[in-house]
Specification:
This protein has 210 residues and is of the alpha+beta class. Helix content is 56%, strand content 20%. Strand 5 and strand 6 form a beta hairpin. The radius of gyration is 17 Å and the shape is globular.
Length: 210
């Protein structure tokens, strides 16, 4: 495989994994509900309800919807932790300025994907189908995303109890983890071009200069 082919493959993996975060842009399937005994399931269900209210509010233009969805996503997700998990071992090697810029660029890329997905929302619905405790902190909430005219997608949400509140730290769509997929690409780019090269690639994807 040529370097250009590796780059294209890496970009496809990055975009596919980032798009999983935008599955928040769905509404609950009629009749679905979270178990009263499952705080993590209620967390995901509540998140979906908030998103619905925004998507259905005809008073909001596209930018206003995106701004409100961004606030919800920021509240529900520990993006700084997700960014560190994705960077993996390179986090220890990064300087403080590199860490700061990396987290900011990571957040911007996730939100850019959300903005792109907002225009392609097609009435998908979700159903919570189960929960499973991973350890004392983490719980997996399993959902099924129904797409009009398409095959349902299995999506798992990894929820962590942190400082007395629940936060989303990973999304696994059809067995593909957003964190693991992005870490694979980050490792590929950083291993080839270093941390500065990784930051430059992230800036390029956002249309920014150093």
């Amino acid at each position: 495989m040529t370097p250009s082919e590796c780059g294209r493959r890496g970009r496809r993996r990055f975009l596919a994994a980032s798009a999983a975060a935008a599955l928040l842009l769905v509404r609950p399937r009629p009749g679905s509900s979270a178990s009263a005994a499952a705080p993590a399931a209620r967390f995901i269900d509540s998140l979906g309800q908030k998103v619905i209210a925004i998507l259905r509010d005809e008073r909001l233009d596209r930018q206003a919807r995106l701004d409100r969805l961004t606030r919800i996503f920021d509240e529900a997700t520990d993006l700084s932790l997700v960014a560190r998990l994705v960077l993996g071992r390179y986090w220890r090697e990064a300087s403080e300025p590199q860490r700061k810029e990396y987290v900011a660029l990571f957040r911007a890329l996730v939100l850019k994907t959300m903005a792109e997905r907002l225009d392609s929302y097609g009435g998908e619905t979700y159903e919570i189908v189960g929960t499973q405790a991973v350890d004392d902190r983490d719980t997996i909430v399993s959902t099924r995303i129904a797409r009009p005219g398409g095959t349902p997608i299995a999506v798992d949400w990894r929820i962590r109890e942190q400082s007395g509140r629940l936060v989303l730290i990973d999304i696994v769509a059809e067995g593909v983890s957003m964190v693991v997929t992005q870490r694979s690409e980050v490792t590929e780019i950083a291993g080839r071009a270093g941390l500065d090269g990784l930051l430059e690639e992230m800036r390029r994807r956002l249309g920014r200069s150093a």
